[in-house]
Amino acid sequence: MVQMTTTARTEQPWVAEGLAAPLALMPSGDGSDRLFILDQVGQIWTLTPVGDLLAEPFLDVSDRMVNLQTGYDERGLLGLAFHPNFAENGRFYVYYSAPLRDGAPADWNHTSHVSEFTVSGDDPNVADAGSERILLQVDQPQSNHNAGQIAFGPDGYLYIPLGDGGGANDTGIGHTPEIGNSQDTTNLMGSILRIDVDRGDPYGIPSDNPFSGEDGREEIYAYGLRNPYRIAFDPGGDRQLFAGDVGQNLWEEVNIVTLGGNYGWRIKEGAHCFNPQNPHVSPEECPDTGPMGETLIDPVIEYQNANAPGGLGLAVVGGMVYRGEVLPGFQGRYVFGDWSTGFGQPDGILLVATPPEMAEGLWPFEELRIATREDGRLGHYLLSFGQDANLELYVLTSDTAGPSGDTGKAFKMVPPES
What is the CATH number of domain 6-414? Predict the structure, then answer.
């Protein structure tokens, strides 16, 4: 177990409430000091600089999505990214789960859409819902493992994380026999994609993508991932890309993702060998290379899943490297967490990891205690993290396991009261 020594608090009152399942919070980069909150049930809400959540959503795509299961569902409106030049061009991008498109395998579940929209010419707080331009459609065999937190990198390209297609063990309908989807670079699943939204029709391929002009899907930036649910670039330092990759039964992991990297799933779960025929036991031996002979890259953070004795939580929630000012003790450290210790009661966990003194090796981490709660626990399901224009961090939570109700909140992380 991690040590429970670090203390912070989540600001009261919360900065936003009354949401179903908030999955992202971010500025648009246009200097307006607004924040935009994405709700899994289909809306993007505007939070004004004075802290008011506007009554009309910035965008509502709920009528374009699949019907969500209220008890638990990994589909929905999952990602939002504003174009680096949003202030000039008004373009932004969303990732959502649409009904299965025509021509997709009839026994598959849904189709993931990555679409471009533009802001309304009449009201900067309302998007033009009719401006949708679908860039990418990916048919999904199962309902889960959709990842979704799209982001623009420092290179100006759009990064799109995709899970392995769902189900368990990267096997079954819609999964490549023998190696699974995540090791099969002829499909997009189990990968982080990188595309150029400013060129091509409907997008361009960066020339240094690992499979540009080679065998394999040219959109792939890195692969060998199971469900990279939350990704984020470090806003400082070397601008590294961090991805929290949800594990199967035993190990949760966070990876620093690099161009062309193979992160091991389903050969490995975390830094441990994996056998899809016996997923509850980590085998002692397995290959250390992928199907093309490439070296498998181990995570920088890992911990045992709550399904294992002494495990910490059920699903890692990737976070962000702190580069703000109000929490100086967190500077350069990676704040992340876990969804909950169980399904029956909201019990998410906040964690903070510190880069090791040596360049290589696992990052040590500890639980982040909440000073405003008597037991120091978060007391909610942890859904995601957000960041404002000043690089301060926000924690997004809900008290229901599924995308329903109005218990979703956004908290700002601030120092503990003296």
Answer: 2.120.10.30
